[in-house]
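Dear U.,

For the methods section draft, I wanted the exact inputs and outputs in one place so we can describe them consistently. I've listed the two proteins in the order they'll appear in the manuscript figures. Please don't edit the token lines directly; just add comments below if something needs changing.

First protein:
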Amino acid sequence: MKTETIQRVRKFTEDRDWDKFHSPSNLAKSIVIEAGELLECFQWSDKKYDINAVKEELADVIVYCQNLLDKLGLDADEIVNEKMTKNEAKYPVEKAKGKADKYDKL
């Protein structure tokens, strides 16, 4: 996210004094709950869904993820790049391209 968007998320929480409710476990639970609501948008069709509902639920997931990053003192770019390095090693292009197999089945 852009810095100004991250600051907006932080200010929203701060202005409402909600940080006291944002334990890591509460935030992780909230991410899963919102991800379930995102999945619900596709419950009956992979082709017919309300894009506005998808955007709202996806935004909720992202906001809670940012809150959890803040709570744990983590940087999104850093942890994503660390994970991508691991993924690139587990799923080399020459073995994984065009396949949906798990790394241990390649």
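Second protein (the one for the lower panel):
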Amino acid sequence: MILAGDMMDVEEACRIGLVDEVVPKGKLIDRAEAILLTIASNGPLAVRYALQAVNSGMDMTQAEGLRLEADLFAFAASSEDRKEGMAAFFERRKPRFTGR
């Protein structure tokens, strides 16, 4: 597509996964802020580890990437934030993550 300069409509871009969502004109900033708030409400360690896995994983073999994911999962699973997240879930309340 890049080299041939082929054009596509929004429906095709969505169908092939190039675009996740189409936002009405004038609503982009509002939607971006909503996504940001959703991400910010998650545990900071989980977000950091997910970003690390995606960014570092691009420069690794599949086996190395899977090992990195397993290591980061182990770190997250042993965190205070995981315990807080589980407690909040069972107590039906919003979690109070500390990043530890």
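Candidate sentences for the figure legend, describing the second protein: The chain has a mean pLDDT of 92. Helices lie at 10-15, 28-40, 44-57, 62-77, 80-90.

Thanks,
Y.
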